[in-house]
C-alpha cells in the first residue's frame, strides 16, 4: 500500500463552520478555475475548492485506509454545523481508481464548500464566511480542437470486442465492459468551469462532477447513503436517440430487447448481490425503466435498501460499502474476476479513475458516489489536452460495429461540452 497525505499545518487544529447563506441558484458559478470540485444535479449538491487536506492512495486496502484517514481527520476538527443536513460539516471529495489496488485514488478536503439541498444554501469553511460572489468565466472557448485515437484505434478496438464475444460464446464469462479512450488537444487551456456548465445544462438528469481534473456528467449513481437508507441507479443497455418517430421506435426497441434486458439484469444482480449482506431490506423493481438523455437512452433500475442495525456489517461506512459493490457489472462484467482479467487483456489501456466511483462523503458517513462515466481527464501536465473515455457492455450477440457506434455517441456527451 502506498499512501501520501498532505494536510495544511493548521488544518487539524481548526474549527470548521457550516452556516446558511443567501440562496445560490447556481452553485457552479462560484467555482474558481483552479482546483474545481463538483457534485451537482439540478442546481443542488456540493461544489468546493482549495485543499485543506489531500490523500492519494494505491494498493489493497486503499478504501479502508482512506476511511480510517477520514475518520482520524474529522476526529481532530472542531465542527460548528448550523445546517445539519447530509453534506454539511466536513466533506471529503473522492475519485477512486477503477482498480484501487493498482491505480491511484484521490481524496480532497476542500478549504471551502458551498452546498445546496432542498433550496437551502450553506457555506462550510474554517471560520465563518459569506457566500462568495459568482465568478465570471472568461468568454471564448478552447479554440481549435484536434482529436487523436487513444490506446486502440477503432479497428483494433472492434477486434477486441470480437475477441470478447468469442470468449463469451465459449462460456468463459457472461458479460464484459470494454472501453476506449480518445485524446483531444485544444489551442487554449481547457476551463473546467465552462465544461461543467455545459455538461450541467445539457444533462440535467446527470450528476456533474469534478475531482482533481476528472470531469464529467454521469447518469449512474453507484450508491447514496443517507443515515441507514441506501439507494442506487443501475444502468446497462443503451440505444442512440433518433429524429422524430425514429426516436420512439428506438426507445421501444431498447425496452423490448432481450439482449439489453439480459445485460441490464447482470448489472442489477451484481449490485444487489454485493449489497445484500449489508442490508436488512433491499428491493429493485422487476422491470427496468427508460432513462432518456440528450445523446442516448438507457435501461435504468433504481435500487433501494436499508443498512442493517446489528452485526459487524452494521458499522460499515460508505467507503466500505463502495469497496464492496465496485466494480458492478455496469463497468466490469460477470463474473467480476473473469471480466476484470479480460479487460486487462483486451482493452490495452489504463482506465485510471474512469469508471471508478466518484463523489463525496461527510463526517456522518452520508454521501453519494456515481460512476465516473461520460467524462474526461484534463492532463495535469498540459491543461490544453484531455483524455475522453467511453465503454459498453459486451454480451453474447454483441456486434463490434454497433458497440463502436455506442462509444461514439457516449463520447459525444463530453465533445459537445468541448465544442460548445
Ligand atoms: C461504460 C459506460 O457506460 C455503462 C455501460 C452501459 C451499456 O453498455 O449499455 C450503460 C451505462 C453504463 O453503465 C460508459 O459510458 O463509458
From TrEMBL:
Molecular function in Gene Ontology: isochorismate synthase activity
UniProt KW keywords: Isomerase
UniProt keyword GTP-binding, yes or no: no
Pfam families assigned: Chorismate_bind (PF00425)
Keyword Chloroplast on entry: no
All residue ranges annotated as the Chorismate-utilising enzyme C-terminal domain in the record: 156-410
Catalytic activity: chorismate = isochorismate
Protein's recorded name: isochorismate synthase
Family from the record: Belongs to the isochorismate synthase family.
SUPFAM superfamilies named in the record: ADC synthase
Enzyme Commission number(s) from the entry: 5.4.4.2
Amino acid at each position: 500500500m502506498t499512501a501520501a497525505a498532505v494536510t495544511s499545518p493548521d488544518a487539524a487544529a481548526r474549527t470548521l463552520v457550516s452556516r446558511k447563506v443567501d440562496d445560490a441558484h447556481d452553485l457552479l458559478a462560484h467555482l474558481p478555475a483552479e482546483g474545481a470540485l463538483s457534485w451537482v444535479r439540478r442546481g443542488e449538491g456540493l461544489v468546493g475548492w482549495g485543499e485543506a487536506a489531500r490523500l492519494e492512495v494505491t494498493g489493497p486496502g486503499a478504501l479502508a485506509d482512506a476511511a480510517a484517514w477520514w475518520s482520524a481527520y474529522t476526529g481532530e476538527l472542531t465542527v460548528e454545523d448550523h445546517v445539519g443536513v447530509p453534506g454539511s460539516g466536513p466533506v471529503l471529495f473522492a475519485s477512486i481508481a477503477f482498480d484501487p489496488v493498482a491505480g491511484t485514488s484521490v481524496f480532497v478536503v476542500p478549504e471551502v464548500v458551498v452546498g445546496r439541498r432542498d433550496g437551502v444554501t450553506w457555506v462550510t469553511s474554517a471560520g465563518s464566511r459569506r457566500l462568495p460572489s459568482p465568478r465570471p468565466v472568461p468568454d471564448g472557448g478552447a479554440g481549435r480542437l484536434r482529436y487523436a485515437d487513444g490506446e486502440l484505434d477503432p479497428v483494433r478496438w472492434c477486434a477486441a470486442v470480437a475477441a470478447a464475444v468469442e470468449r463469451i460464446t465459449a462460456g468463459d464469462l457472461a458479460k464484459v465492459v470494454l472501453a476506449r479512450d480518445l485524446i483531444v488537444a485544444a489551442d487554449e487551456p481547457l476551463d473546467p468551469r465552462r465544461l461543467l456548465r455545459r455538461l450541467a445544462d445539457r444533462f440535467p438528469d446527470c450528476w456533474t462532477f469534478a475531482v482533481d481534473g476528472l470531469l464529467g456528467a454521469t447518469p449512474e449513481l453507484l450508491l447514496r447513503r443517507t443515515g441507514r437508507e441506501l439507494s442506487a441507479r443501475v444502468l446497462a443497455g443503451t440505444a442512440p436517440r433518433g429524429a422524430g418517430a425514429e426516436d420512439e421506435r428506438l426507445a421501444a426497441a431498447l425496452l423490448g430487447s432481450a439482449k439489453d434486458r439480459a445485460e441490464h439484469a447482470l448489472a442489477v444482480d451484481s449490485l444487489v448481490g454485493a449489497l445484500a449482506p449489508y442490508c436488512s431490506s433491499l428491493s429493485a423493481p422487476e422491470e427496468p425503466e427508460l432513462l432518456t438523455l440528450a445523446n442516448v437512452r438507457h435501461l435504468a433500475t433504481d435500487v433501494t435498501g436499508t443498512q442493517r442495525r446489528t452485526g459487524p456489517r452494521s458499522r460499515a461506512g460508505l467507503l466500505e460499502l463502495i469497496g464492496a459493490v465496485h466494480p458492478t457489472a455496469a463497468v466490469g462484467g460477470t463474473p467480476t474476476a473473469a471480466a476484470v482479467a479480460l479487460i486487462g487483456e483486451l482493452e490495452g489501456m489504463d482506465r485510471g479513475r474512469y469508471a471508478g466511483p466518484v463523489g463525496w462523503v461527510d463526517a456522518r458517513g452520508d454521501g453519494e458516489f456515481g460512476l465516473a462515466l461520460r467524462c474526461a481527464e484534463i492532463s495535469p501536465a498540459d491543461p490544453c489536452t484531455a483524455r475522453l473515455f467511453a465503454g459498453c457492455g459486451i454480451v453474447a450477440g454483441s456486434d463490434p460495429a454497433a458497440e463502436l457506434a455506442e462509444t461514439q455517441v457516449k463520447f459525444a456527451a463530453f465533445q459537445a461540452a468541448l465544442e460548445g
